[in-house]
Amino acid sequence: MNEYLTGDDLAAAIILLRDSDERAILLMEGASDCGLFDPHLEATEALTLPGHGKVNVVRAMEILKNLNSGLVVAVLDADWAGADLQGVVGPPFFFTQLYDIDMDLFALPGVVERVMSNLCSGKVIVQGQGTSLSEAKRTVIRLAFVPGVLRYLSHREGYELALRDLPLGAVVDMQSVDVDIEKLVNIARAKSRSPVAGAERLLIDLHECLSTPLYDEIRYCSGHDVCAIWALLFREEYGITIGSAQLERILRSAIGCYEFQQLTVVRQLGEWGQRVGVKLWDCAA
């Protein structure tokens, strides 16, 4: 039923909740985001609620700002839609540092290496079979950068491409560490109901963007793409079969209090909590 939830429904649920619960509310985009934050919350003072999408969360916050709904903040992915919002809203909206929360986790020092050390046998790594841990992280980012740039172009130019759950295994060659750009564009157009641009236009734009020095590759990467490519690397380099959804859950499970506190959005939320007199984190330093 969550697909039928609207921002108005969400705001109404929060207003009703206020009859029995005065804790600060962190309104998240999805239930998996709640799963990351909940173990670190001071449960007597705050709780998370899933909004089931950025649009719902933003709409609910618009309604609640004019009502006596207590302390409610939104925690959103800083994807390209989020980047547009950041220019017009401030607290109580808080954004991830990179494209989404999974990218913030992937970028934390030591986390990827820890996950790989536990999933890969020590024998494989010590003997040098397959990609080294440090190189694996760079390889995944390099490959995820290409569909990430396509997302950026689609948003910037209004191309209306359907880029969720791309079958990246069909376009990524792990041996040559390369992406078949033409196949990627054709798949993206085939998944889209009414793509604005033709394949030739998209290829020209994508090649032009990829040939232009950009600020930082990791800033263009989506967490879903990264985990999908990471899963390919596990299978092709280490012979380990694992799904991208499993990797997303494992990545979040690898985050202890120390790593959680290193996230920029967590520090910003903690500072907000101090200003309003709420202790958000039970593991706060």
Describe the protein in words.
The chain is an alpha/beta fold. The chain has two domains: 2-97 and 263-276; 103-258, no CATH class. It contains 14 helices and six strands. It has helices spanning 7-17, 31-37, 54-64, 80-86, 101-107, 111-119, 122-126, 133-157, 181-191, 199-210, 223-238, 244-253, 257-262, 264-276; strands spanning 24-28, 46-50, 72-76, 93-95, 172-173, 178-179. The strands form two sheets. A four-stranded parallel sheet has the order 2-1-3-4, sandwiched between helices. The chain has a two-stranded antiparallel sheet with strand order 5-6. A hairpin with a 4-residue loop joins strand 5 and strand 6. The mean pLDDT is 89.
> How many strands in all?
6
Amount of helix: 40-55%
Structural category is alpha/beta
Tell me the radius of gyration: 20 Å
Q: Note poorly predicted spans.
A: none
> Strand sequence of the main sheet, in spatial order?
2-1-3-4
Report the β-strand fraction as a percent range: 5-15%
SSE series: HEHEHEHEHHHHEEHHHHHH
Give a nutshell description of this structure:
The chain is of the alpha/beta class and 285 residues long. The protein has helices at 7-17, 31-37, 54-64, 80-86, 101-107, 111-119, 122-126, 133-157, 181-191, 199-210, 223-238, 244-253, 257-262, 264-276; strands at 24-28, 46-50, 72-76, 93-95, 172-173, 178-179.
Which helices and strands, and how do they pair?
Blueprint: H1 7-17, E1 24-28, H2 31-37, E2 46-50, H3 54-64, E3 72-76, H4 80-86, E4 93-95, H5 101-107, H6 111-119, H7 122-126, H8 133-157, E5 172-173, E6 178-179, H9 181-191, H10 199-210, H11 223-238, H12 244-253, H13 257-262, H14 264-276
Helix pairs in contact: 1-3, 8-10, 8-11, 9-10, 11-12
